[in-house]
Write a structure and sequence with these properties.
This protein is of the alpha/beta class and about 300 residues long. It is about 50% helix and about 15% strand. The chain contains 13 helices and 11 strands. Strands 1, 2, 3, 4, 5, 6, 7, 8, 9, 10 and 11 form an 11-stranded mixed sheet that branches.
Length: about 300
């Protein structure tokens, strides 16, 4: 297996310390330069300051990298030929020695290979609006059904059909736990209108649930839904109007498949005059703080 684990991460894992996986599509496809680099480095620092070790994951020239250097983050942020690496893409990218930024699913797979149990992201993928006709369902959901990594997120991206996303997760037996909330957040907003399975009020309690799940030998991940802080949330009606406009433009331009999400996020940034990007950055930072606290408590419980 062509996988390289950065020295500080390898040491932390060997000592049973808290390590947090971070995806790289947020760098290559999720934010404009240089905000993508600034955010990636700030999120890593938040995790270090909390007492955990960050592990940003990507495939560089066919090698799975668990932990990136500053130069590698810069390379991902500015290159135009970086592929999005989900489960289906990993064999091709590695065999062809290409560079790929890992999606939620891709990051979960690589994190599990390295023995990392907690992953922080912005929002998971899900069932797209109109999926009853298009069958456009993110591979993130099937990955959550089989890969043993807890995913700390601000819910699912609000461009999705959140009701169907939660139904899909229920069918797959994936626990959806709300961190200090009984509502499922919708990325830019704190309440999607749907409930989580259970509210969990502390990092200690969350770690105990994850530990219990591991002891039971239950396969699959856990969604830890952590709402965007109140002061950075956007009004639900404003973001929904912007999403409808962005969806209309995507349809008119024939945007489909994995190009949809980057297009919609970019278009939302334009429509909201940058407010959606600012919220995106803040929710990722908040997830990093919560994820680090949970990973530290989980490390205390051992394997």
């Amino acid at each position: 297996m062509n996988i390289q684990i950065k020295a500080d991460i390898q040491e932390a894992l060997a000592q049973g310390k808290a390590v947090i996986a971070l995806e790289s599509t947020i760098i290559s496809h999720g934010m404009p330069y240089p905000k993508n680099v600034e955010t990636a480095l700030e999120v890593e620092q938040i995790i270090r300051d909390a007492g955990a070790v960050p592990a940003t994951i990507a495939i560089m020239d066919g090698v799975i990298k668990i932990g990136l250097s500053h130069d590698e983050i810069e390379q991902l942020a500015q290159a135009s030929d970086v592929l999005k690496a989900s489960r289906r893409d990993l064999p091709y990218i590695m065999a062809q020695k290409k560079t790929g930024a890992t999606t939620v699913a891709g990051t979960m797979i690589c994190a599990a290979m390295a023995g990392i149990r907690v992953f922080v992201t912005g929002g998971i993928g899900g069932v797209h609006r109109g999926a009853e006709k298009t069958m456009d369902i993110s591979a993130d959901l099937t990955e959550l059904a089989k890969t043993n990594v807890a995913v700390v997120c601000a819910g699912a991206k609000s461009i999705l059909d959140l009701g169907l996303t939660l139904e899909y997760l229920e069918t797959q037996g994936v626990p959806v736990l709300g961190y200090q909330t009984d509502r499922f957040p919708a990325f830019y907003t704190r309440d999607s209108g749907f409930a989580v399975n259970y509210q969990v009020n502390s990092a200690e309690e969350m770690a105990e649930i994850l530990h219990s799940k591991a002891q039971l030998g239950l396969e699959g991940g856990t969604v830890i839904a952590n709402p965007i802080p109140e002061e950075h949330a956007l009004p639900a009606d404003e973001i929904e109007a912007a999403i409808q406009q962005a969806l209309k433009e995507a349809d008119e331009n024939g945007i489909a498949g994995k190009a949809v999400t980057p297009f919609l996020l970019s278009k939302l940034g334009e429509i909201t005059a940058g407010k959606s990007l600012a919220s995106n950055i803040e929710l990722v930072k908040n997830n990093a703080r919560v994820g680090a606290a949970i990973a530290i408590e989980l490390a205390k419980l051992g394997k």
